[in-house]
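agent> Task received from the user: take the single chain below, predict its 3D structure, and emit structure tokens. No templates, no multimer pairing.
agent> Plan: (1) validate residues, (2) run structure prediction, (3) serialize to tokens, (4) report one or two observations.
agent> Step 1 OK, no nonstandard residues flagged.
tool_call: predict_structure(input=
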Amino acid sequence: MSKLETILQEEVLAEIQRVLAEADAEAERIVAAAREKAEAMVAAQKRKLEAQKAAELHRAESAAELAVTTARVEAKGKVIGEVFERVKRRLTALPEDPEYPTVLERLAAEAVAAVGEAEAIIVNPADEARLKGWAEGKGLQLRTSPEVKLGVVAVSKGGKTQVANTLPERLERAWETLSAEVSRVLWG
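)
tool_result: status=success, residues=188
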């Protein structure tokens, strides 16, 4: 082989080596870029999944908190309702209390004062004997009606105006305020 052939062969081999080295470097750069891109995609997907997981967890926690709050409100409503029913039952037992005639007289006095010039009071037949003396002492007629329970109705002269003053009606009117107080006492 001639010297020229040897030189050419060496140059060709050197060129092949250079091209191969460049190809290897380019391949490594491509692989590194692809690896970097893949890692970035995996990291982005991982962040996305973690964000979705956090959002789902937050929604689940919010739903659970709402369910607990709703259950508490319902339970408190039941307790308040039970308290109301107990109070009503205690009111129905009030006529057995020795202080009941005094309570009736106070209710009658309030109703008579509210009606202005009263000519009569109406009471439940069971309460007639309890208020007979009081009504006579005030110069009022005493009438009975089974519809009047635990209180009185005062009737103005001429019968144009009536004022009811019964414990069940007063309880109904005051219950919103009373239930708030019961709630405060029970649950702070």
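agent> Step 4: summary for the user.
Residues 119 and 157 are 5 Å apart (CA to CA).
agent> Done.
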